[in-house]
Design goal:
heterodimer; A: 370 residues; mainly alpha; MetI-like fold; B: alpha/beta; D-Maltodextrin-Binding Protein, domain 2; 2 domains; five-stranded mixed beta sheet; globular
C-alpha cells in the first residue's frame, strides 16, 4: 500500500560510479594516511628524509660493502660490516658453550616447543585434548633433555649460553610469573590481613629494588650466608630472581585489571552462590586478564630482555657472546657493531612476535566492544 | 656495613666451623682433589688475557696459569671449571669459596692483600696505567690534560689512580665512567671522551685496532704501578704455596730453558743441572714438601709451556696484540721477572 509517491527527477537509477580518484587506490591511501593535513604531510616528508639519510648508508654498510669470508678481523677492510665471524661463531651465539655433540638435544627442545606453545596459545588445533597434556609435560621433558640424566650425558648449567639461555630463562620467567602474579594480585585485594600484608610487602619490596641489586644479592651475598655445603645452581638462582621480579610487576598489572571490573560482577558471583575461588575463576579473572593483556605482554617483553643480565654471574647469553667475540684478539675492534646487531635481531624477532600474538589475542577475546 | 666486613665475618665464622670439623687447616688442596676440578676465577673477556676460541674453549694469558695449576694439582690441564667474574664480583667470589684461585688481571695492592684477606702469590704481569689520546689534541704529555674528558672502566684501580694523578698535578678532568673495556674503547672511538685510560698493555692492544693507529698516541706518562697476579684466600698457606710455586716454576722454566717441548725429556732422567733436576722432581723431594707428587712442575710446564711461551702465544709477538716484554722480561734480560730458587 502506497502512502505517498516519490518525486524523482529520473526514471531509473544511475549506474554506480567509481569513487573519486582522490579517495581510492594509491592516491586515496596516501591522502588519508600520509597527507591528510599540513602537519601530517610535513611529518611524512620529514620521516622520508630521515630514512633516506640512514637506510641507504646502513644497507651499504651491512650488505654491499660487507665482508663475508675471512679467518680473522684483519681480513675485513674497515669500510663495510664484518660478517666473517658468522660461520665460526654462530653456533656459540645460539648454543653458548653447550657441548657440540649435544646440540641435537637443544634442537629437539626447540622443535617440541613449537607444538607445546601452540597448544597453549591457540584453540581449534587438531588433537588439542592430548596437546594440552603435552604442553603441561613439556617443561619436564625440556629439563631432562637440556640438563641430562636418564641416560643422557649431564650438561652443567654454566655451559648453557647464547640465545638458548635467553630463551630458557625468559620462558621459565614468563610461565611462572603469570600465576604467581595472579596470586599476588588477589592477595593484595584480599580481606585477610596477613595475606594482604605479605602480598603488599612482597610487591613493594621487589618493585622498590633494582633487578641488578637483587641479582647481586642472590649471587654474591647468598653464598656468604649459606653454609658451604649448600649450593644452589647459579642459573636457578637467576631464574628465581627474574621470576620473582617479574611477578611483582605482573601482580600490579593484573590488579589494574581486577580494579576495572565493576562491583556488580563480584556481587553477581555471590548472588549465584559461587564461592570466592569459583567466582574468581569463572567470572572475575577471565575479564580482568583480558583487560590486562597489553600490560601482561609488556611485562613479558621486559622480562625477556632482562635475561641479558645473566652476564653479571658470568653466564654468557647472546649479548655476552657478542662481548666475548669483541674481546677476542683476532677480532678486536672489528665486530663491535655487527655482533650487537645480530643480538638485537634475535631479540627483535621474539619480542615482535610476542607483541603480535598479544594483538591477535586481544582481537580474539574482544566480546564487548565489537 | 661493607661487603668486606660481611665477607670477613663470614670467613672467620667459616674458618671456625671448618677448624671444628677438620682438625688442622682448611685444606683447599683436599677439596680440589675431592671435587676433581679446579675452580678458577677469570675475566669475562679481556683481549689476550682471557677469551674464547672458535670452539668455545677459554684461552689466554691468565687462563694459561689456571691450566698450569690444574695440571700440577690434578694432573689434567682441562680439569677446570672456569668462573667468569667482573671487577665487582671477583673478590666476593674468592672470599665465599666459590673459586679456589683468582687469575683475573688483578692488581696487587696493600688493602686487597691486607684488608680483604687475600694472599697474592706473585706477579705474572707488570703493568702500569697510561693514557691514549688523539694526536689532533696537540698535546704531548698527560700533564697537559686539564679539563679533558676521560673514558674509564669503573670498579678498578684505574679509576683511583686517575683521581690521584689529576689531584697531584692540580688539574681537573671529567670522568666518563663505563662498565667494560670494549665499551670504553668504543666510546673513545666515537669521541665521547678526549682520552682513554687503562693499563698500558690494554692501550697497546687497543691502538692496533684503530683504523688509523697513527692518529692516536699513548702519552709517555705511566701513572701507576699495576703488578697483576693470581691470588688465593688467606689462611691456607699450603694452597698459597702451591699457587705461588706454580707461577715460579713457569718463570724458572724460562730462565733454565725448560720448554713445553723438552720438559718431558728433561724429566725422564736426572740431567746435569741440579736446579732443573730439583724442579722436575728427578732429584730431591720438593713436590712432597708441597703436598704434591714429584712430577707436579713437569705437568705445570707441559700444560701451556714456560712463561715466555705463554707470553708470546697470547699477548706477545705471536699474538695479534704484539706486546713487548718490557718490565716482564727476566731479570737476566733487563726486566724484573725474578723467581726465588728451587732449592
Amino acid at each position: 500500500m502506497k502512502t505517498h509517491a516519490f518525486h524523482r527527477s529520473r526514471a531509473e537509477m544511475l549506474p554506480e560510479r567509481p569513487a573519486p580518484i582522490t579517495t581510492t587506490g594509491v592516491i586515496g591511501w596516501l591522502r588519508t594516511n600520509l597527507f591528510s593535513s599540513y602537519l601530517s604531510a610535513a611529518l611524512t616528508l620529514g620521516s622520508i628524509a630521515v630514512l633516506a639519510l640512514i637506510v641507504p648508508g646502513l644497507i651499504e654498510w651491512a650488505f654491499i660493502d660487507a665482508t663475508l669470508t675471512g679467518e680473522i678481523g684483519k681480513d675485513c677492510p674497515s669500510e663495510g660490516a664484518c660478517w666473517a665471524w658468522l660461520d665460526q661463531r654462530i653456533t656459540q651465539f645460539f648454543y653458548g658453550f653447550y657441548p657440540a655433540d649435544a646440540y641435537w638435544r637443544v634442537n629437539i627442545c626447540i622443535a617440541l616447543l613449537v607444538p607445546a606453545l601452540a597448544y597453549m596459545l591457540f584453540d581449534k588445533l587438531p588433537y588439542s585434548r592430548y596437546g594440552r597434556w603435552f604442553s603441561l609435560a613439556y617443561p619436564v621433558i625440556a629439563a631432562i633433555l637440556l640438563v641430562g640424566g636418564l641416560g643422557l650425558e649431564v650438561v652443567r648449567t654454566d655451559q648453557f649460553g647464547g640465545f638458548m639461555l635467553n630463551l630458557i630463562a625468559g620462558l621459565v620467567g614468563i610461565v611462572l610469573s603469570l600465576p604467581i602474579g595472579i596470586l599476588l594480585a588477589l592477595g593484595r585485594r584480599s580481606r585477610m590481613p596477613i595475606v594482604r600484608m605479605f602480598s603488599v610487602g612482597f610487591i613493594e619490596f621487589i618493585r622498590g629494588v633494582p633487578l641488578i641489586t637483587l641479582l647481586f644479592v642472590a649471587i654474591i651475598l647468598l653464598p656468604l650466608f649459606l653454609p658451604p655445603q649448600v649450593t644452589l645452581d647459579q642459573l636457578i638462582r637467576v631464574m628465581i630472581i627474574i621470576t620473582v621480579f617479574a611477578s611483582a610487576y605482573m601482580a600490579e598489572v593484573i590488579r589494574g585489571g581486577l580494579q576495572a571490573i565493576p562491583q556488580g560482577q563480584y556481587e553477581a558471583g555471590q548472588a549465584m552462590g559461587l564461592g570466592y575461588w569459583q567466582s574468581m575463576r569463572l567470572i572475575i579473572l577471565p575479564q580482568a586478564l583480558k583487560i590486562s593483556i597489553p600490560g601482561i605482554v609488556n611485562t613479558f617483553i621486559g622480562l625477556f630482555k632482562d635475561t641479558t643480565l645473566v652476564i653479571i654471574i658470568g653466564l654468557f647469553d647472546i649479548l655476552g657472546q657478542a662481548r666475548l667475540l669483541q674481546t677476542n684478539p683476532d677480532w678486536l675492534g672489528k665486530v663491535d657493531y655487527e655482533t650487537f646487531l645480530l643480538a638485537a635481531l634475535f631479540f627483535f624477532v621474539i619480542c615482535f612476535s610476542m607483541s603480535r600474538y598479544s594483538l591477535n589475542l586481544e582481537k580474539r577475546l574482544d566480546t564487548t566492544r565489537r | 656495613m661493607s661487603f668486606k666486613k660481611i665477607a670477613g665475618a663470614v670467613a672467620v665464622a667459616g674458618a671456625l666451623v671448618a677448624a671444628g670439623a677438620v682438625p688442622g687447616q682448611a685444606a683447599t688442596l683436599d677439596d680440589v682433589k675431592a671435587a676433581g676440578t679446579l675452580k678458577c676465577g677469570i675475566n669475562t673477556g679481556l683481549p689476550g688475557f682471557a677469551y674464547t676460541d672458535d670452539a668455545g674453549n677459554w684461552t689466554g694469558f691468565d687462563v694459561a696459569y689456571c691450566r698450569a695449576m690444574a695440571a700440577a694439582v690434578l694432573g689434567d690441564a682441562n680439569a677446570i671449571s672456569f668462573v667468569n667474574l667482573t671487577g665487582k664480583t671477583r673478590f666476593p667470589a674468592l672470599a665465599s669459596g666459590e673459586i679456589d684461585v683468582l687469575s683475573r688481571n688483578t692488581t696487587w695492592t696493600y688493602s686487597r692483600d691486607v684488608d680483604l684477606g687475600f694472599t697474592f702469590v706473585g706477579v705474572n704481569y707488570y703493568d702500569g696505567q697510561g693514557f691514549i689520546g688523539r694526536t689532533a689534541l696537540g698535546i704531548s704529555s698527560a700533564t697537559e690534560l686539564d679539563g679533558a674528558s676521560v673514558c674509564i672502566q669503573t670498579g678498578t684501580t684505574t679509576e683511583l689512580n686517575l683521581a690521584d694523578f689529576f689531584r697531584v698535578n692540580g688539574i681537573t678532568y671529567e670522568p666518563v665512567p663505563i662498565e667494560t673495556n670494549a665499551e670504553a674503547r668504543a666510546a673513545y672511538e666515537a669521541e665521547r671522551c678526549d682520552v682513554y685510560t687503562t693499563d698500558a698493555s690494554g692501550l697497546a692492544a687497543t691502538k692496533t685496532t684503530f683504523d688509523d693507529p697513527s692518529a692516536h698516541m699513548v702519552f709517555p706518562e705511566i701513572v701507576s704501578k699495576e703488578p697483576l697476579g693470581p691470588l688465593v684466600r688467606q689462611g691456607d698457606d699450603q694452597w698459597a704455596d702451591i699457587a705461588r710455586w706454580t707461577l715460579n716454576a713457569l718463570i724458572t722454566a724460562e730462565e733454565l730453558g725448560v720448554t713445553q717441548a723438552n720438559v718431558e725429556e728433561m724429566a725422564a732422567a736426572a740431567g746435569d743441572h741440579p736446579e732443573i733436576n730439583r724442579m722436575l722432581g728427578t732429584e730431591g723431594s720438593l713436590g712432597e714438601m708441597l703436598g704434591l707428587d714429584a712430577q707436579w712442575a713437569v705437568r705445570a710446564i707441559a700444560a701451556e709451556g714456560n712463561y715466555a711461551e705463554i707470553f708470546d702465544r697470547y699477548i706477545g709477538p705471536d699474538s695479534p696484540l704484539g706486546l713487548g716484554r718490557g718490565l716482564n722480561a727476566l731479570y737476566t734480560d733487563g726486566g724484573i721477572l725474578y723467581s726465588p730458587p728451587f732449592r
